[in-house]
Write a structure and sequence with these properties.
Rossmann fold, alpha/beta, five-stranded parallel sheet, single chain, Hypothetical protein af1432
Protein backbone atom coordinates (compact mmCIF):
# COMPACT_ATOMS: atom_id res chain seq x y z
CA UNK A 1 0.00 0.00 0.00
CA UNK A 2 1.37 3.48 -0.87
CA UNK A 3 2.70 5.32 2.21
CA UNK A 4 0.15 8.15 2.10
CA UNK A 5 -2.90 6.23 0.89
CA UNK A 6 -6.10 8.26 1.12
CA UNK A 7 -4.45 11.44 2.45
CA UNK A 8 -5.66 14.64 0.79
CA UNK A 9 -3.25 17.13 -0.74
CA UNK A 10 -3.54 20.31 -2.78
CA UNK A 11 -1.18 21.43 -5.56
CA UNK A 12 -1.31 25.18 -6.27
CA UNK A 13 0.38 26.60 -9.39
CA UNK A 14 -0.73 28.82 -12.25
CA UNK A 15 1.16 26.60 -14.74
CA UNK A 16 -1.16 23.63 -15.55
CA UNK A 17 1.66 21.41 -16.84
CA UNK A 18 3.80 21.73 -13.70
CA UNK A 19 0.72 21.40 -11.49
CA UNK A 20 -0.21 18.11 -13.24
CA UNK A 21 3.32 16.71 -12.90
CA UNK A 22 3.33 17.30 -9.16
CA UNK A 23 -0.20 15.95 -8.76
CA UNK A 24 0.65 12.71 -10.60
CA UNK A 25 3.77 12.27 -8.47
CA UNK A 26 1.77 12.64 -5.26
CA UNK A 27 -1.02 10.39 -6.49
CA UNK A 28 1.62 7.74 -7.06
CA UNK A 29 2.44 8.00 -3.34
CA UNK A 30 -1.20 7.38 -2.46
CA UNK A 31 -2.42 10.97 -2.07
CA UNK A 32 -5.83 12.11 -3.27
CA UNK A 33 -4.86 15.31 -5.08
CA UNK A 34 -6.81 18.46 -5.82
CA UNK A 35 -5.43 21.23 -8.00
CA UNK A 36 -5.77 25.02 -7.92
CA UNK A 37 -4.50 27.59 -10.40
CA UNK A 38 -4.36 30.49 -7.91
CA UNK A 39 -4.39 31.31 -4.22
CA UNK A 40 -8.07 32.22 -4.42
CA UNK A 41 -8.93 28.80 -5.89
CA UNK A 42 -6.75 27.16 -3.20
CA UNK A 43 -8.69 28.87 -0.38
CA UNK A 44 -11.96 27.64 -1.89
CA UNK A 45 -10.59 24.08 -1.97
CA UNK A 46 -9.30 24.28 1.61
CA UNK A 47 -12.70 25.44 2.82
CA UNK A 48 -14.22 22.13 1.63
CA UNK A 49 -12.42 20.20 4.38
CA UNK A 50 -9.06 19.46 6.04
CA UNK A 51 -6.05 19.15 3.71
CA UNK A 52 -2.92 17.79 5.43
CA UNK A 53 -0.52 18.91 2.67
CA UNK A 54 -0.34 21.93 0.34
CA UNK A 55 2.39 22.40 -2.27
CA UNK A 56 2.26 25.95 -3.61
CA UNK A 57 4.19 28.04 -6.07
CA UNK A 58 5.18 31.52 -4.87
CA UNK A 59 4.49 33.53 -8.04
CA UNK A 60 0.80 33.43 -8.96
CA UNK A 61 -1.89 35.90 -10.06
CA UNK A 62 -4.70 37.17 -7.79
CA UNK A 63 -3.15 35.85 -4.57
CA UNK A 64 0.55 34.98 -4.49
CA UNK A 65 2.08 32.11 -2.54
CA UNK A 66 3.18 34.28 0.39
CA UNK A 67 -0.33 35.65 0.95
CA UNK A 68 -1.75 32.15 0.62
CA UNK A 69 0.74 30.87 3.19
CA UNK A 70 -0.31 33.56 5.69
CA UNK A 71 -3.96 32.59 5.18
CA UNK A 72 -3.27 28.89 5.65
CA UNK A 73 -1.15 29.27 8.81
CA UNK A 74 -3.84 31.51 10.32
CA UNK A 75 -6.90 29.42 9.41
CA UNK A 76 -5.54 25.89 9.04
CA UNK A 77 -2.49 25.65 11.30
CA UNK A 78 -2.32 21.85 11.05
CA UNK A 79 -1.80 21.96 7.26
CA UNK A 80 1.78 21.32 6.12
CA UNK A 81 2.87 23.79 3.43
CA UNK A 82 5.76 23.26 0.99
CA UNK A 83 6.57 26.24 -1.26
CA UNK A 84 7.94 25.90 -4.76
CA UNK A 85 10.30 28.62 -5.94
CA UNK A 86 12.92 29.41 -8.53
CA UNK A 87 16.57 29.08 -7.52
CA UNK A 88 16.90 32.87 -7.64
CA UNK A 89 14.08 33.20 -5.06
CA UNK A 90 15.65 31.11 -2.29
CA UNK A 91 15.63 34.10 0.07
CA UNK A 92 11.84 34.33 -0.38
CA UNK A 93 11.56 30.63 0.38
CA UNK A 94 13.56 31.07 3.61
CA UNK A 95 11.23 33.92 4.58
CA UNK A 96 8.31 31.53 4.01
CA UNK A 97 9.90 29.00 6.36
CA UNK A 98 10.01 31.70 9.04
CA UNK A 99 6.32 32.36 8.40
CA UNK A 100 5.30 28.74 8.93
CA UNK A 101 6.05 26.76 5.76
CA UNK A 102 7.59 23.40 6.64
CA UNK A 103 9.88 23.13 3.62
CA UNK A 104 10.57 24.40 0.10
CA UNK A 105 11.54 22.96 -3.30
CA UNK A 106 13.57 24.96 -5.82
CA UNK A 107 12.94 24.71 -9.58
CA UNK A 108 14.08 22.78 -11.50
CA UNK A 109 13.57 19.86 -9.12
CA UNK A 110 13.93 16.09 -9.24
CA UNK A 111 10.88 14.01 -8.40
CA UNK A 112 12.85 12.04 -5.80
CA UNK A 113 13.65 15.32 -4.06
CA UNK A 114 9.96 16.20 -3.97
CA UNK A 115 9.13 12.80 -2.45
CA UNK A 116 11.74 13.30 0.26
CA UNK A 117 10.59 16.85 1.08
CA UNK A 118 6.95 15.72 1.27
CA UNK A 119 7.84 12.89 3.64
CA UNK A 120 9.92 15.21 5.86
CA UNK A 121 7.22 17.89 5.93
CA UNK A 122 4.54 15.41 6.97
CA UNK A 123 6.82 14.03 9.68
CA UNK A 124 7.26 17.59 11.00
CA UNK A 125 3.48 18.10 10.82
CA UNK A 126 2.89 14.93 12.84
CA UNK A 127 5.35 16.06 15.53
CA UNK A 128 3.80 19.53 15.66
CA UNK A 129 0.31 18.07 16.11
CA UNK A 130 1.52 15.64 18.77
CA UNK A 131 3.28 18.44 20.62
CA UNK A 132 0.19 20.65 20.44
CA UNK A 133 -1.98 17.80 21.74
CA UNK A 134 0.47 17.13 24.56
CA UNK A 135 0.58 20.84 25.42
CA UNK A 136 -3.21 21.01 25.55
CA UNK A 137 -3.35 17.90 27.74
CA UNK A 138 -0.69 19.37 30.02
CA UNK A 139 -2.61 22.64 30.32
CA UNK A 140 -5.76 20.73 31.22
CA UNK A 141 -3.89 18.80 33.92
CA UNK A 142 -2.41 22.04 35.29
CA UNK A 143 -5.88 23.59 35.29
CA UNK A 144 -7.29 20.59 37.18
CA UNK A 145 -4.42 20.74 39.66
CA UNK A 146 -4.97 24.47 40.16
CA UNK A 147 -8.65 23.85 40.87
CA UNK A 148 -7.71 21.18 43.39
CA UNK A 149 -5.23 23.53 45.07
CA UNK A 150 -7.99 26.14 45.31
CA UNK A 151 -10.36 23.57 46.82
CA UNK A 152 -7.77 22.49 49.40
CA UNK A 153 -6.98 26.10 50.25
CA UNK A 154 -10.63 26.98 50.78
CA UNK A 155 -11.21 23.81 52.77
CA UNK A 156 -8.38 24.93 55.01
CA UNK A 157 -9.95 28.38 55.27
CA UNK A 158 -13.27 26.96 56.38
CA UNK A 159 -11.53 24.64 58.84
CA UNK A 160 -9.85 27.65 60.47
CA UNK A 161 -13.16 29.52 60.72
CA UNK A 162 -14.96 26.50 62.15
CA UNK A 163 -12.13 25.98 64.66
CA UNK A 164 -12.55 29.58 65.81
CA UNK A 165 -16.32 29.30 66.09
CA UNK A 166 -16.04 26.03 68.03
CA UNK A 167 -13.81 27.88 70.49
CA UNK A 168 -16.03 30.97 70.77
CA UNK A 169 -19.77 30.28 70.58
CA UNK A 170 -20.52 34.01 70.60
CA UNK A 171 -18.87 34.48 67.22
CA UNK A 172 -20.60 31.46 65.65
CA UNK A 173 -21.81 32.56 62.21
CA UNK A 174 -20.27 36.02 62.66
CA UNK A 175 -17.61 35.59 59.98
CA UNK A 176 -20.09 34.39 57.38
CA UNK A 177 -22.58 37.13 58.20
CA UNK A 178 -19.84 39.71 57.86
CA UNK A 179 -18.89 38.19 54.52
CA UNK A 180 -22.52 38.40 53.34
CA UNK A 181 -22.87 42.01 54.46
CA UNK A 182 -19.55 42.87 52.81
CA UNK A 183 -20.59 41.29 49.51
CA UNK A 184 -23.81 43.33 49.47
CA UNK A 185 -21.94 46.55 50.26
CA UNK A 186 -19.48 45.80 47.45
CA UNK A 187 -22.34 45.21 45.02
CA UNK A 188 -24.05 48.43 46.12
CA UNK A 189 -20.80 50.25 45.33
CA UNK A 190 -20.66 48.62 41.88
CA UNK A 191 -17.36 46.81 42.48
CA UNK A 192 -16.26 44.19 39.98
CA UNK A 193 -16.34 40.44 40.58
CA UNK A 194 -12.57 40.21 41.22
CA UNK A 195 -12.75 42.73 44.08
CA UNK A 196 -15.90 41.09 45.48
CA UNK A 197 -14.15 37.71 45.59
CA UNK A 198 -11.25 39.31 47.47
CA UNK A 199 -13.61 40.98 49.95
CA UNK A 200 -15.63 37.78 50.52
CA UNK A 201 -12.47 35.78 51.24
CA UNK A 202 -10.97 38.38 53.59
CA UNK A 203 -14.27 38.95 55.38
CA UNK A 204 -14.77 35.29 56.23
CA UNK A 205 -11.20 35.13 57.54
CA UNK A 206 -11.05 38.51 59.28
CA UNK A 207 -11.28 37.18 62.86
CA UNK A 208 -9.29 33.98 62.46
CA UNK A 209 -6.53 35.39 64.68
CA UNK A 210 -8.85 34.98 67.67
CA UNK A 211 -7.68 31.37 67.67
CA UNK A 212 -4.62 32.78 69.44
CA UNK A 213 -6.64 34.74 72.02
CA UNK A 214 -7.22 33.36 75.52
CA UNK A 215 -10.63 31.73 75.95
CA UNK A 216 -10.96 33.43 79.33
CA UNK A 217 -10.74 36.79 77.60
CA UNK A 218 -13.04 35.80 74.73
CA UNK A 219 -15.73 34.55 77.13
CA UNK A 220 -15.37 37.19 79.85
CA UNK A 221 -18.84 38.49 80.78
CA UNK A 222 -17.69 41.78 82.29
CA UNK A 223 -15.75 44.72 80.96
CA UNK A 224 -12.25 43.91 79.72
CA UNK A 225 -9.25 45.37 81.52
CA UNK A 226 -6.80 47.44 79.50
CA UNK A 227 -4.42 44.47 79.31
CA UNK A 228 -7.22 42.12 78.22
CA UNK A 229 -8.37 44.58 75.59
CA UNK A 230 -4.82 44.87 74.23
CA UNK A 231 -4.61 41.08 74.19
CA UNK A 232 -7.83 40.61 72.21
CA UNK A 233 -6.83 43.37 69.81
CA UNK A 234 -3.76 41.36 68.86
CA UNK A 235 -5.98 39.07 66.77
CA UNK A 236 -5.54 40.99 63.47
CA UNK A 237 -1.75 40.55 63.68
CA UNK A 238 -2.07 36.92 64.77
CA UNK A 239 -4.46 36.23 61.89
CA UNK A 240 -2.15 37.89 59.36
CA UNK A 241 0.76 35.78 60.62
CA UNK A 242 -1.26 32.57 60.38
CA UNK A 243 -2.53 33.29 56.87
CA UNK A 244 0.48 35.10 55.44
CA UNK A 245 2.24 31.99 54.07
CA UNK A 246 -1.07 30.71 52.59
CA UNK A 247 -2.24 33.97 51.02
CA UNK A 248 0.80 35.38 49.26
CA UNK A 249 -1.29 35.45 46.08
CA UNK A 250 -4.24 37.25 47.72
CA UNK A 251 -2.75 40.37 49.37
CA UNK A 252 -6.09 42.23 49.30
CA UNK A 253 -7.78 39.56 51.40
CA UNK A 254 -4.81 39.45 53.77
CA UNK A 255 -4.99 43.24 54.22
CA UNK A 256 -8.58 42.82 55.46
CA UNK A 257 -7.43 40.38 58.14
CA UNK A 258 -4.75 42.76 59.40
CA UNK A 259 -6.51 46.13 59.01
CA UNK A 260 -10.22 45.63 59.73
CA UNK A 261 -9.86 47.35 63.14
CA UNK A 262 -8.14 50.47 61.77
CA UNK A 263 -10.10 53.71 62.08
CA UNK A 264 -10.36 56.54 59.60
CA UNK A 265 -9.02 59.04 62.18
CA UNK A 266 -5.83 56.99 62.74
CA UNK A 267 -6.66 55.81 66.28
CA UNK A 268 -7.30 52.18 65.29
CA UNK A 269 -5.06 49.14 65.49
CA UNK A 270 -2.68 47.46 64.89
CA UNK A 271 -0.85 50.01 62.73
CA UNK A 272 -2.62 53.30 63.40
CA UNK A 273 -3.36 53.80 59.70
CA UNK A 274 -5.35 56.86 58.72
CA UNK A 275 -7.76 57.64 55.89
CA UNK A 276 -6.68 56.25 52.54
CA UNK A 277 -3.71 54.52 54.19
CA UNK A 278 -6.24 51.88 55.24
CA UNK A 279 -6.81 49.43 52.38
CA UNK A 280 -10.22 50.01 50.80
CA UNK A 281 -11.26 46.37 51.28
CA UNK A 282 -10.49 46.62 55.01
CA UNK A 283 -12.49 49.86 55.32
CA UNK A 284 -15.46 48.11 53.74
CA UNK A 285 -15.31 45.00 55.91
CA UNK A 286 -14.91 47.10 59.07
CA UNK A 287 -18.39 48.55 58.49
CA UNK A 288 -19.93 45.10 58.05
CA UNK A 289 -17.98 43.78 61.05
CA UNK A 290 -19.10 46.62 63.30
CA UNK A 291 -22.75 46.28 62.30
CA UNK A 292 -22.84 42.54 62.95
CA UNK A 293 -20.96 42.92 66.24
CA UNK A 294 -23.41 45.57 67.43
CA UNK A 295 -26.49 43.54 66.48
CA UNK A 296 -25.18 40.28 68.00
CA UNK A 297 -25.26 39.16 71.63
CA UNK A 298 -21.88 39.41 73.34
CA UNK A 299 -20.75 37.99 76.71
CA UNK A 300 -20.54 41.50 78.14
CA UNK A 301 -23.75 43.02 76.63
CA UNK A 302 -27.02 42.25 74.85
CA UNK A 303 -27.41 42.99 71.14
CA UNK A 304 -28.28 46.48 69.97
CA UNK A 305 -31.32 47.12 67.81
CA UNK A 306 -30.77 47.59 64.09
CA UNK A 307 -31.88 51.22 64.41
CA UNK A 308 -29.36 51.84 67.19
CA UNK A 309 -26.57 50.15 65.21
CA UNK A 310 -27.35 52.26 62.15
CA UNK A 311 -27.19 55.40 64.26
CA UNK A 312 -23.76 54.33 65.53
CA UNK A 313 -22.55 53.85 61.96
CA UNK A 314 -23.86 57.28 60.96
CA UNK A 315 -22.12 58.90 63.93
CA UNK A 316 -18.90 57.09 63.06
CA UNK A 317 -18.72 58.51 59.52
CA UNK A 318 -15.38 60.20 58.88
CA UNK A 319 -14.14 59.22 62.35
CA UNK A 320 -14.20 55.44 62.47
CA UNK A 321 -15.78 54.56 59.14
CA UNK A 322 -15.51 55.56 55.49
CA UNK A 323 -18.62 57.73 54.81
CA UNK A 324 -19.12 56.38 51.27
CA UNK A 325 -19.13 52.79 52.52
CA UNK A 326 -21.53 53.51 55.38
CA UNK A 327 -23.90 55.25 52.96
CA UNK A 328 -23.76 52.27 50.58
CA UNK A 329 -24.48 49.85 53.44
CA UNK A 330 -27.43 51.84 54.74
CA UNK A 331 -28.82 52.19 51.21
CA UNK A 332 -28.49 48.45 50.59
CA UNK A 333 -30.16 47.73 53.92
CA UNK A 334 -33.03 50.09 53.17
CA UNK A 335 -33.52 48.41 49.77
CA UNK A 336 -33.71 45.02 51.45
CA UNK A 337 -30.60 43.48 49.90
CA UNK A 338 -28.75 43.47 53.23
CA UNK A 339 -30.77 41.95 56.06
CA UNK A 340 -29.97 40.26 59.39
CA UNK A 341 -29.07 36.63 58.66
CA UNK A 342 -30.20 34.18 61.40
CA UNK A 343 -28.10 31.33 59.99
CA UNK A 344 -24.99 31.58 57.82
CA UNK A 345 -25.84 31.35 54.12
CA UNK A 346 -22.64 32.30 52.36
CA UNK A 347 -22.11 31.66 48.66
CA UNK A 348 -19.14 29.33 47.93
CA UNK A 349 -15.91 31.26 48.28
CA UNK A 350 -13.50 31.59 45.36
CA UNK A 351 -9.93 32.72 45.21
CA UNK A 352 -9.63 36.05 43.38
CA UNK A 353 -8.82 35.52 39.69
CA UNK A 354 -5.36 37.09 39.92
CA UNK A 355 -4.51 34.80 42.84
CA UNK A 356 -5.56 31.77 40.82
CA UNK A 357 -3.47 32.92 37.84
CA UNK A 358 -0.45 33.31 40.11
CA UNK A 359 -0.95 29.83 41.54
CA UNK A 360 -1.24 28.35 38.03
CA UNK A 361 1.96 30.12 36.97
Amino acid sequence: MPPFAGMRCLVVDDEPRLRRVLARLLEGEGFTCAEAGSGVEAIAELEKGPVPLVISDLRMPEMDGVTLLREITARWPETAVIVVTAVAEVESAVACLQMGALDYVAKPFHLDEVRARVSQALDKRRLIIENRTYQQSLEERVEAQARRIEELFLEGVHALVFALEAKDAYTRGHSMRVANYSIEIARALGLDAEVIDTIALGAELHDVGKIGVSEAVLHKAGKLSDAEYRHIMEHPVIGARILGPLMKDAPGALSIVRSHHERLDGTGSPDGLKGDQIPFEARLVSVADAFDAMTSVRPYRPSLTVKHAMRELEEGKGVQFDPEIVTAFLRAYAEGTTLPIPTPQLQPLRLPTRAMEARRA
